[in-house]
Amino acid sequence: MSKPPAPARPVLVLNKVERHYVQGERKLTILNGADFTINRGEMVALVAPSGAGKSTLLHTAGLLEKPDAGEVTLNGRVCGNLPDDERTSIRRNEIGFVYQFHHLLPEFSALENIMLPQLVQGLAKKEAANRARQLLDYMHIGKRAGHRPAELSGGEQQRVAIARAVANAPRLLLADEPTGNLDPQTAGYVFDALAALVKQSGLAALIATHNHELAARMDRKVTLDQGHIVPA
Ligand SMILES: Nc1ncnc2c1ncn2[C@@H]1O[C@H](COP(=O)(O)OP(=O)(O)OP(=O)(O)O)[C@@H](O)[C@H]1O
């Protein structure tokens, strides 16, 4: 008898989430009772036109912004409305972010950039360096460990940024156009490295992208439609 499939394990659950902005006289509704679940090991593409609310969704899912209504649950814990300091602590431990521009600290080497979030979390220097080296090797840029961001190519900088985002072994990776600043070939290579990391570590990843080729390679695609998160 074949084994039943392993049960899906939700990492992020949005339940009837609302986000509104006030722009002068206007109330702008970006999320309007949005429901969404992403499971362990799943890579989901978020595709939507500019201004549709991708960053708003990522910031709400990433506990950077509180929802106006509804619940954000991370690893089984309802945490969207917790006080700022608690959300910050959960974010540091359980969520990794990658942006379009790497945001690496220019005065530190690639290795040090990946060590820093681990040191903030209280890890010993030696352990942090070992993990940073492993991640750099995994991203095929081990030889660049001692280089500062300005001495790296755009693709290498993004690989370091991805390695830094997962340095504290988060459960959820949120990425806003992680390859948007790269030429198509480099974007493909960086995406390959990111996808391998997600699958190997069992992360859940929500990745906003305008690149339809890369979106098609993820497990599924979602978009924003009238404040709801729907299949794309
Ligand atoms: N703090 C804010 N106050 C008022 N309006 C905001 C605020 N943040 C975002 N908006 C508006 O909400 C809408 C969605 O913005 P958001 O940045 O989430 O879109 P996006 O899909 O990420 O866009 P892009 O692809 O251009 O980055 C936009 O119309 C934006 O002007």
From TrEMBL:
Residues 12-232 form the ABC transporter domain. Gene3D superfamilies: P-loop containing nucleotide triphosphate hydrolases. GO terms for molecular function: ATP binding. The keyword Nucleotide-binding applies. Keywords: ATP-binding, Nucleotide-binding, Translocase, Transport. The keyword Transport applies. Pfam families: ABC_tran. InterPro entries: AAA+_ATPase, ABC_transporter-like_ATP-bd, ABC_transporter-like_CS, ABC_transpr_LolD-like, MacB-like_ATP-bd, P-loop_NTPase. It comes from the Bacteria. Belongs to the ABC transporter superfamily. This is ABC transporter ATP-binding protein.
